[in-house]
């Protein structure tokens, strides 16, 4: 069965993503969710790359992230490595619709496929970043609070039997369940394959996903009604005691 692990290099990518994040201008394109309005960086993902189900946004990954490493048959000691990576600050911004707030615990995921030979193969994919609370101002996200790293990864290696399969991974940040009106994630996307000796290692990414959770926030008039009800109950209780 494929093993999935977090390498030290991915932890380093989380830290580097946090350092690189800024309120720099991006080509943000809007798309609506159930309780969330999303803005994605079209320069990074591509125009029309996004689709939304509920409050989860899926983004098509560019074809250049598909990587393959092949060592020709009969070569026992040859090696080949292929990789690709890119960074967006901020890759996705989520803004709660009126009457809702967003939890700062965010999920990130990857879908795709991999192939490794019986020996000498490794195929990896990672989506790493940092979660920020902030505000959307004049078409740009202004971060106020960096919260935590957000890693999602898949790592498959030879185990004596050739393997080829699809994968769908989703992992969640370790943020406490605090709330914000706007939450953003920067996106550091990487694919990597390595082959030692005869064989082929391949990694194909289909989509990257970010899952948000929205909760209803009572409107001011709701609080007024609740307060009025409490006052009325208090008055009635005092009258009964009198």
Automatic annotation (TrEMBL):
The keyword Signal applies. Residues 216-240 form the Ice-binding protein C-terminal domain. PROSITE patterns: PROKAR_LIPOPROTEIN. The keyword Signal applies. Residues 1-25 form the signal peptide. Keywords: Signal. NCBIfam families: PEP_CTERM. This is PEP-CTERM protein-sorting domain-containing protein. It comes from Duganella sacchari.
């Amino acid at each position: 069965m494929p093993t999935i692990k977090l390498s030290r290099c991915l932890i380093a990518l989380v830290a580097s993503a946090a350092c690189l994040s800024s309120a720099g201008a991006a080509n943000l394109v809007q798309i609506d969710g159930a309780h969330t309005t999303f803005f994605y960086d079209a320069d990074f993902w591509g125009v029309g790359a996004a689709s939304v189900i509920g409050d989860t946004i899926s983004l098509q990954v560019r074809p250049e992230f598909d990587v393959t490493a092949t060592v020709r048959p009969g070569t026992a000691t040859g090696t080949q490595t292929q990789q690709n990576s890119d960074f967006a600050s901020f890759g996705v911004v989520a803004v709660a619709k009126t009457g809702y707030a967003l939890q700062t615990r965010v999920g990130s995921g990857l879908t795709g496929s991999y192939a490794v030979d019986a020996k000498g193969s490794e195929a990896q994919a990672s989506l790493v970043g940092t979660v920020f609370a902030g505000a959307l101002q004049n078409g740009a996200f202004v971060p106020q609070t960096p919260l935590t790293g957000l890693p999602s990864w898949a790592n498959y290696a030879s185990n004596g039997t050739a393997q080829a399969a699809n994968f769908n991974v989703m992992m969640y940040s370790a943020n406490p369940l605090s709330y914000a009106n706007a939450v953003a994630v920067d996106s550091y996307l990487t694919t990597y394959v390595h082959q030692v000796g005869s064989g082929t290692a391949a990694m194909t990414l289909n989509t990257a996903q970010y899952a948000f959770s929205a909760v209803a926030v009572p409107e001011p008039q709701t609080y007024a009604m609740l307060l009025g009800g409490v006052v009325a109950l208090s008055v009635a209780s005092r009258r009964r005691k009198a």
